[in-house]
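Notebook p. 47: complex prediction with adenosine-5'-diphosphate.
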Amino acid sequence: MTDDAIIEETIQFVKETLKGAEGGHDWFHIQRVFRNTLFIAKDEKVDVLVASLGALLHDIADAKFYNGDETIGPKMAATFLTSLNVDQKVIDHVVKIIENISYKNSLDPNASTFTSPELQVVQDADRLDAIGAIGIARTFNYGGFKNRELYNPAIPPNFNQSKEAYKKSAAPTINHFYEKLLLLKDKMNTQTGKEMAAQRHQFMLNYLEQFYAEWNPIGVKED
Ligand code: ADP
Ligand code: NI
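Predicted complex, structure tokens below:
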């Protein structure tokens, strides 16, 4: 099978598997991450097949929606790629990307230290979709999906969270900006990713300023 045919089959598999997914983790999230990956990869020395498959399969079974089981996604990806007779070396690398891409992982001191240029590109591509205009939309969509408050001045953000606390947090959605979104620009791996993140970061700062101005136009002290 050609690389293009493998990618085409994978796209169909992912579209089918993610039918009905929450709006921030659906096929269009995958499509944007795939496009970001191809865009960033133009300036990096990477195996484009590995990076493409990593992007397409990175959220195939997001642990948030599987009772926290982080082993299902990598297994599903490996089983699918094996059914297409993809090279074992490619499969192993894609599985490592899926296992290591998540932000939560970076909060875990015992997390694996695996890295590769392909992981770095896909991770940047995924992080870019978590910030800027789209990142804001996804974050409020997720908060709505979980029935969270938009904002609550009495509940401050919790910095320095453990991976477990981060996963369990039911805080208002605005807190997620401080707990994750605003931290991402300093975690980008590639030059292209850093430049794109800087612009999206500034957009979020402007957004937050406007949000608070609208929340409290008469300047009353919050209690
Ligand atoms: P990762 O897979 O990188 O650890 P997540 O899947 O936890 O990241 O988050 C992906 C996106 O889902 C976030 O960028 C955000 O838009 C949304 N999201 C996840 N957790 C929350 C939360 N607690 N509040 C609001 N949005 C969230
Ligand atoms: Ni993702």
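Notes: The chain has one domain: 3-215. The mean pLDDT is 94.
Next step: compare against the earlier run before touching the bench.
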